[in-house]
Specification:
Elements lengths: L3 H15 L8 E2 L8 H5 L2 H20 L20 H6 L9 H6 L2 H25 L5 E2 L25 E5 L7 H9 L5 E3 H11 L4 E4 L6 H14 L13 E4 L3 H14 L8 E4 L5 H10 L3 E4 L1 H10 L10 E5 L1 H4 L5 H14 L4 E6 L4 H7 L7 E4 L33 E7 L5 H13 L6 E5 L3 H18 L6 E4 L5 H13 L3 E5 L14 E4 L6 H8 L9 E7 L6 H6 L6 E2 L2 H5 L20 H23 L3 H18 L17 H6 L11 H4 L16 H10 L10 H12 L7 H14 L6
Parallel strand pairs: 5-10, 5-11, 6-8, 6-9, 7-8, 9-10, 12-17, 12-18, 13-15, 13-16, 14-15, 16-17
Antiparallel strand pairs: 1-2, 3-4
Helix pairs in contact: 8-9, 9-10, 12-14, 16-22, 17-23
The structure holds adenosine-5'-triphosphate.
Protein name: ATP-dependent RNA helicase
Family: Belongs to the DEAD box helicase family. DDX31/DBP7 subfamily.
Keywords: ATP-binding, Helicase, Hydrolase, Nucleotide-binding, RNA-binding
């Protein structure tokens, strides 16, 4: 008699038998071995049991901020004399099934079916030879993974900010129509802490540097004084005055959102005209609007520079206000040049003006750099720490370095922050199951998933809409947002997600700053942010203005030191266990494995079943990716862009995020690729050929680049990692100025279409 145990061992053994030299272990899961859908439906007791378990797990997960107790991965500590080769072998193994489980399976069936199975296998093998894709080939998800280390949560005292005060807008000396508009149109009456401190300071004519947590109402803290001051100008402001206030924000969506806020505030003051300029819009139309006259000009930096250089009708002679919202991002490496052009243009023509910098993460370095455009500023920090007094000679760069490591950031008090440590191979399935958990098995969840590149967003979008949405109609609804989309589409998605009560937005950091999307319940950081400040902005898309929300950060075992980096900024996370997330697969039988798990099976058998189900889901993903050459190509592109983005982590985080720590084969699997693709080295330094036993480790991009340049590619441009980062930031936040090539192409195109560069 063949027991379940031996069947299982057979499954895992087959991994070994089929393992190829290049560490891509293969597990054949024949769809014929899976139960039919009618068989599946006959098992309501399992579902009920799991629904109950799930409820308990949910309660446990949220009742305490302590780690979830259930152990998942059986870990073995490395011995001192372990060689790297042994290290690979010594990963989590599938636990053997318990004797109880052995006795429970109708294994005789399996024995009886054996010859038939052999025939079927042969048939399938033949089919594979013919079509290349009839059989399901999936390398083992749960073997040869690095150990999941125990997470040490450093003790931190979270910075707390009180959101609301007891005072209201009517207590300030504002125009009654403005107060009425705030109450009736924007539905706000009580002042938030940042508004209480900032509005009077700005009304008194001071420059200001303002820091308060995400979602605390910073927009109104500058918009209200701007409107109050402009409506009182005599004689009345007119279009012909041109821009009186310039508001610079880093992304198009934020520009649109800020413009809409001004539109609402200006309802009673129709003679003051707001306008927005942003990359992706037609320059000609914008030029026409500028010529007509805009008094409050909201713009992304790149597009404003574009107009300064090419639009004669843009005149800054009357500008009284300059606002830099999300100032740390705007002053960041990628936009510094743009800002210099804007400041020079304003300084050369304008009268004296009030300047305001705002962000949830203004650091010492940024404020010091900002000193050049501020005049005796008042420093407002709701958490109480006076960040402007810092005297260290730091400069604003994308790598603030250790000088800013002690900088504390406030995150919303009602935000629950989690981290899950997932080996690379399992990342894709883990994300998918998490989404299923929140969107299929719980209701009214609205998720934002952050990914590091546009190509990766596109890849996940097409994978999830094709595989997950198809399997789980109608509960799953995906949207995507990234810098490579056409502006109309971006705006449409932004509006759609804003009004939707549920759904999943897959996006890059283009949605990380300032966006006020209502009712977002979960923020998922599928790829870790490049800085603690970016972490704060990403999670800040939920739990806004005193609301509740949760966030989940994905880290690989090699990246867990990022938890300490966040703790250095007083950010503390609770651990969510991988198995707890994957156990959602037991909520129904969509991805049922071929194991004979049933309600009375042991917990080890249950773990085995969960792993099998995860493998079935991964197989579906891989089948989709490998279903046609185009989708393979898309997955490769996504992988390549992910690797490229990985090289841009700042120097002080390289000990955590270094491309050399990535395993190319495992990373490829998280893009649904069965094998590590060849030839990824040119842009990323990735190495997929097999020069030695460490063949799947990715080599240093710098070394690879040197090697390449030494040979045939002497003419190719060499980029420093910092330059690559600027390139990525600029393309991602592109607000009018595109890369050199794209610019040339566009110029050519414009010339052909007869559009004038100059007015
Ligand atoms: N006084 C108030 N009372 C109630 N709601 C308010 C008040 N002020 C602002 N809000 C609302 O709070 C939300 C968040 O405001 P806002 O976008 O200005 O936050 P923020 O501090 O700029 O966030 P971020 O740092 O993420 O950009 C908005 O929906 C806004 O309408």
């Amino acid at each position: 008699m063949v027991s379940v145990c031996s069947l299982s061992v057979c499954v895992w053994d087959r991994c070994f038998i089929m393992s190829s030299a290049d560490d891509q272990l293969c597990l054949n899961i024949s769809s014929s071995l899976l139960p039919s859908s009618s068989q599946r439906r006959k098992r309501p007791t399992t579902q009920q049991r799991w629904a109950r378990k799930k409820q308990i797990a949910e309660k446990r997960r949220f009742s305490s901020s302590e780690d979830v107790k259930r152990p998942f991965v059986k870990q073995r500590k490395l011995q001192h004399n372990d060689t790297p080769e042994e290290e690979v072998q010594m990963q989590t193994e599938a636990p053997p099934l318990s004797p109880a489980a052995e006795n429970q399976s109708p294994t005789a069936d399996v024995t009886k079916r054996k010859p038939e199975k052999k025939k079927k296998k042969k048939k399938e093998k033949d089919a594979v030879t013919e079509t290349g894709r009839s059989s399901i080939k999936t390398s083992s998800l749960f073997k040869h993974n690095p150990d999941i280390p125990a997470i040490h949560r450093p003790v931190v005292s979270q910075v707390k900010e009180k959101i609301f005060t007891t005072e209201s807008f009517s207590d300030l000396q504002l125009h009654p129509h403005l107060v009425a508009t705030l109450n009736k149109v924007l539905n706000v009456s009580t002042l938030t802490s940042v508004q209480k401190q900032t509005i009077p300071a700005l009304l008194s004519g001071r420059d200001a540097v303002v820091r308060s947590q995400t979602g605390s109402g910073k927009t109104l803290s500058y918009a209200v004084p701007v409107v109050q001051s402009l409506q009182s100008v005599q004689p009345k402001v007119s279009r012909s005055d041109g821009p009186l206030a310039v508001v610079i924000v880093p992304t198009r969506e934020l520009a649109l959102q800020t413009f809409q806020t001004f539109q609402k505030l200006l309802r009673p003051f129709t003679w003051i005209v707001p306008g927005v300029l942003m990359g992706g819009e037609k320059r000609k139309a914008e030029k026409a609007r500028l010529r007509k006259g805009i008094n409050i000009l909201v713009s992304t930096p790149g597009r404003l520079v574009d107009h300064i250089k090419h639009t004669l009708s843009i005149a800054f002679s009357a500008v009284r206000w300059l606002i830099l919202d999300e100032a740390d991002r705007t002053l960041d490496l990628g936009f510094e040049k743009d800002l210099t052009v804007i400041l020079n243009s304003l300084n050369s023509t304008g009268p004296s003006r009030q300047n305001v910098l705002l962000s949830a993460t203004l650091t010492h370095g940024v404020t010091r750099l900002a000193d050049v455009c501020l005049n005796d500023p008042v420093s407002i920090s709701v958490s109480g720490s006076d960040f402007s007094d810092h005297t260290a000679a730091t400069a604003a760069t994308s790598d603030p370095g250790p000088a800013s490591q002690s900088e504390s950031f406030a995150v919303p008090e009602a935000l629950k922050q989690f981290v899950v440590v997932v080996p690379s191979k399992i990342r894709l399935v883990c994300l998918a199951v998490f989404i299923l958990d929140k969107c299929k098995f719980s209701q009214n969840n609205k998720l934002i998933v952050f990914v590091s590149s546009c190509e990766a967003v596109e890849f996940l979008y097409s994978l999830f809409t094709s595989v997950l949405s198809a399997n789980h109609k109608p509960s799953l609804h995906f949207l995507r947002l990234h810098g490579n989309m056409k502006q109309e589409e971006r705006s449409e998605v932004f509006q759609q997600f804003s009004v939707s009560p549920s759904g999943v937005l897959l996006c890059t950091d283009v949605a990380a700053r300032g966006l006020d999307l209502p009712q977002v319940t979960w923020i998922v950081q599928f790829t870790p942010p490049t800085a603690a400040a970016e972490y704060v902005h990403r999670v800040g898309r939920t739990a806004r203005i005193g609301g509740r929300g949760s966030s989940l950060l994905f880290l690989t075992p090699a990246e867990t030191a990022f938890i300490t980096e966040l703790a250095n900024h007083n950010i503390s996370l609770s651990e969510m266990k991988l198995l707890d997330i994957l156990s959602t697969l037991m909520m129904d039988d969509t991805y049922r494995g071929r194991g004979k798990y049933h309600s009375k099976s042991s917990s080890k058998a249950l773990e085995q079943e969960i792993r099998e189900r995860a493998t079935v889901l991964q197989t579906e993903f891989e089948n989709f990716v490998h279903s046609d050459p185009e989708s393979v190509q898309n997955a490769k592109k996504a992988l390549q862009s992910f690797l490229r983005a990985y090289t841009t982590y700042p120097a002080h985080l390289k000990h955590i995020f270094h491309i050399r720590f990535l395993h190319l084969g495992h990373t490829a699997k998280s893009f649904g690729l069965r094998d590590a693709p060849q030839g990824l080295s040119s842009a990323t330094g990735a190495h997929s050929k097999k020069p030695n036993h460490n063949k799947n480790r990715i080599r240093s991009p710098v070394k690879e680049q040197k090697k390449k340049l030494g040979s045939s590619q002497a003419g190719e441009k060499r980029f420093h990692p910092a330059q690559r980062e600027v390139g990525l930031i600029r393309s991602e936040f592109s607000s009018g100025l595109d890369g050199a090539d794209a610019k040339k192409k566009k110029k050519k195109k414009r010339k052909m279409s007869g559009e004038e560069e100059e007015e």
